Amino acid sequence: MSDVSNAGVRDGAPAALHLVVTGIEKSFPGVRALSGVSFEVAPGEVHALLGENGAGKSTLIKIISGVYQPDAGVMHVGGRPLRFSSPDDARHAGIATIYQELLLFRDLSVAENIFMGHAPRSRGGWLDWKTMAARTEALLASLEITDLAPRRIVGSLSVGNRQRVEILRALSQEARFLIMDEPTAALTEYDVRRLFDLVRRLKSRGVGIVYISHRMDEIFQIADRVTVLRDGAHVGTRKVTETSSAELVQMMVGRQIENLFPKVAAPIGLPVLEVRDLVRRPLTRGISLTVRAGEIVGLAGLVGSGRSELAQTIFGVTPAESGQVTMSGKPVQIRSAAGARSLGIAYVPEDRATQGLVRPMTVRENFSLASLAKVARFGFIDRAAETRMAEAGVNRFRVRAGSLDQVVGRLSGGNQQKIVLGKWLANQPKLLILDEPTRGIDVGAKAEIHRLMCALAAQGLAILMISSELPEVLGMSDRVLVMREGRLVAEFARAEATPEAVGAAMMGSQDADAGRAA
After folding, report:
1. Would 222 be classed as within a structural domain?
2. What domain range includes position 452?
3. Per-residue pLDDT tens over the stretch 255-297
4. Which residues in 387-419 are b (16+ Cβ under 10 Å) and which e?
5. What letter does residue 329 receive in the DSSP assignment?
6. Is residue 359 part of a domain?
7. Backbone angles phi, psi at 6, to 5 degrees
8. Cα R_g (the chain), whole angstroms
């Protein structure tokens, strides 16, 4: 196996220090997930892994981290051929994975989370709290983290700080290779900058990092090399300094995408949703807004501004304490999600994994969840009708699944998001609330969803879109509303919605005067 262990020497670094996988094959029932994939990362390198949802990225990192075992292929760590039968094997080999959904104990302290499973003990076998705190302090100091303390309860921390606790936990186990799966998906811009500073410090200490992200600008900021997968196969590897966004996108999707935001003007009709002085403390404070038929209204704001809380109040998840809501000119009371659905409101939530899907259920069953009345007879599900509904959704949204009976939790994030959207559109709503509709979705799927949004608006659907990606808000919206601290603070027509003006309103800058105060 010497030819494998000497593969891919980077900048003169000894091959014995590399993590190298060669010829990896993996199949699931009805799906070939990986086909002869090779990949490697060197010490002190950030190697980005790109690909559309369903390209095989998740399967590859689960093989590297010991969750899955490959059907064929070899892996070398530190020059030695290894085969992991569990995540513990990978951890012992110096490989740690930071997943998008953080695996922390919210009621325990920073130190307890960092040393969970390998806490220092006294000679009598008792937990050595003093040593645990001292080692935590040493880890924090080594990475110049000054705003965390060993005794802080993790549940009180921001998402960015919780993510840093995950990284510290990996380092406490002497991880030499760190896999980061969509690490910035739920972070503020400030936390993203802090994460990148931490990644650079890890690089300087010789930690090799596999970095997975759908945000192209991040790849060019932080990565040294990038590998692209498509349909379970290795398409190519490039140095970041020798490629471009256009080339990487074409490698990912097999075609050029000239317009990621294919906005098409649609006739705007009468108001569908009107909200006046809506209150649900603490983050919905006197909100008034209107969304018209055929209109896409973008709702911008920093994390914690109250955008998602407003959506949940409109949809009845957290009913309003006061205020008025009108649907198509008729005053309504929305006290539950079922009531909102009966009024023609659909809500695609930010957290598709826990709020949008029942992950252990099948593709067919999830497609029918929001419209069971259409596929039920005398209290029983008509399986043929349910199958027809699911087949139509799979074809319309180009869902990649082995069959309609495949468990949704085994699909890629992008395919799961398509099912959430299709589930609600099967109910033929009048108003569609989209909370982070393309978070964690590759560029090809983003373009598809954006085109679908335009088509739905052209059919007269009213759309309220919440997004943390300012280019998406500006590219897709007919009007842009800005929230800050639970209030609407500005409104912009499409022609007035510049990055500078909207960004200033989000941050509370005086430059936000370009927008009309809400």
Report:
1. no
2. 259-344+429-518
3. 555 566 778 888 999 999 999 999 998 889 999 999 999 999 9
4. bebbeebbeebebbbeebebbbebbbbbbbbbb
5. T
6. yes
7. -100, 10
8. 24
